[in-house]
Specification:
Helix content: 40-55%
Strand order of the largest sheet: 2-1-3-10-4-11
Radius of gyration: 20 Å
CATH superfamily of the largest domain: Bordetella uptake gene, domain 1
CATH topology of the largest domain: D-Maltodextrin-Binding Protein, domain 2
Largest sheet: 6 strands, mixed
Shape: globular
Number of strands: 11
Strand content: 15-25%
Number of helices: 11
Distance between the termini: 29 Å
Structural class: alpha/beta
Number of domains: 2
Order of helices and strands: HEHEHEHEEHEHEHEHEEHHEH
Length: 328
């Protein structure tokens, strides 16, 4: 006898297959479907967070260029480490063709740590669109002028070096732990409800450093309040900022990806509509300005390739969490 959870898994898998087949076939029938109600873009994050900025950029482009025939709005559903948002989309709105979900690494890691049944395969894949750089920031008033200074500070103050960030288990916290392990220093992690709160904490000198997206803290660097010490990838805005790799650091720099998924059980023609609409989004001046302003790396992965990409990322995080002793 198939359990309700098993039925849900079968339905999700069937959605993955049907969407992939339709996209591969060229989307026949997609032109026959279009939203007839407001489209809601859901995020687990608070307003101003990087995934929120990403979704609001998409929503503004859809409205300005009339890419979607109805209104588009962003809804922030916070709490429970993103579980409220995940369940809202995957369970409460299963089959809803007028809802999309901004998918990030945190939405992949949290279920792995809590052994939740709501995983990447609980959604209909639409598109991977950008990867954001991860930057190490310190308060400009601190004596830390380089990552070497920061590591030495941690060595001089065992257990006293504090990294701030969002929920533990996301890429910033894992990268901070790996950096400390490689340098053989102990770095404590102080979680905040949101990445934005960790930026505020750094501005107030309540933590020693954060590792966040450029979009979260760039304005404070330009204002002279924060200092960037290193980045996961080269940045055009800060050409002299070293990458972790160029500093000789070997730890894995995790991908801060931004993708779009839909609830399970939507018809393939609806999924294909959103794939084509997001593809048109990428060609607008506003999208190109977003990519340039936040120094994100534009990506375009859809269909089976996106499904495979999500599965590989999930395996990577599962293996890393086990290696770090964060899950059994």
């Amino acid at each position: 006898m198939t359990t309700p959870r098993g039925k849900a898994a079968i339905a999700a898998a069937a959605t993955f297959v049907s969407v992939i087949v339709l996209i591969k076939a060229g989307g026949a029938g997609a032109a026959d479907w279009a939203p007839n109600d407001k489209v809601v873009l859901v995020t687990h994050a608070t307003p101003g967070a990087s995934i929120d900025v990403f979704l609001r950029t998409v929503a503004d482009i859809w409205t300005r260029h009339k890419l979607v025939p109805r209104q588009t709005a962003v809804e922030n559903i916070t709490g429970a480490g993103g579980d409220k948002a995940r369940r809202h989309v995957a369970v409460q709105n299963s089959g809803n063709t007028h809802m999309l979900f901004g998918y990030t690494p945190q939405m992949m890691v949290a279920p792995l740590r809590t052994r939740s049944e709501i995983s990447a395969r609980s959604f209909t894949p639409i598109a991977l669109m950008v990867i954001e750089p991860t930057v190490l920031f310190v308060n400009a008033d601190t004596p830390f002028k380089s990552v070497k200074d920061l590591i030495e500070g941690a060595r001089q103050k065992p257990k006293g070096m504090l990294q701030g960030g969002g929920a533990f288990g996301g890429p910033p916290s894992l990268m901070g732990k790996m950096m400390g392990d490689e340098a053989k220093v102990e770095i404590a992690f102080t979680p905040f409800k949101t990445s934005a709160e960790s930026v505020v904490a750094l501005l107030g000198n309540h933590v020693h450093f954060i590792m966040e997206q450029l979009s979260e803290a760039d304005q404070h660097v330009k204002a002279g309040k924060l200092r960037a010490l290193a980045t996961s990838i080269p940045l055009e805005q800060y050409p002299s900022l070293p990458t972790f790799e160029s500093l000789g650091m070997k730890f894995r720099t995790l991908k801060q990806f931004r993708g779009v998924v839909a609830p399970p059980g939507i018809p393939p023609e609806a999924a294909e509509f959103y794939v084509k609409t997001l593809d048109r989004t990428r060609g607008t001046p506003e999208w190109k300005q977003y990519v340039k302003q936040y120094e994100v790396v534009a990506q375009w992965v859809v269909g089976k390739a996106f499904t495979d990409w999500l599965e590989e990322e999930e395996k990577t995080y599962a293996r890393l969490l086990r290696e770090l002793g964060l899950v059994k």
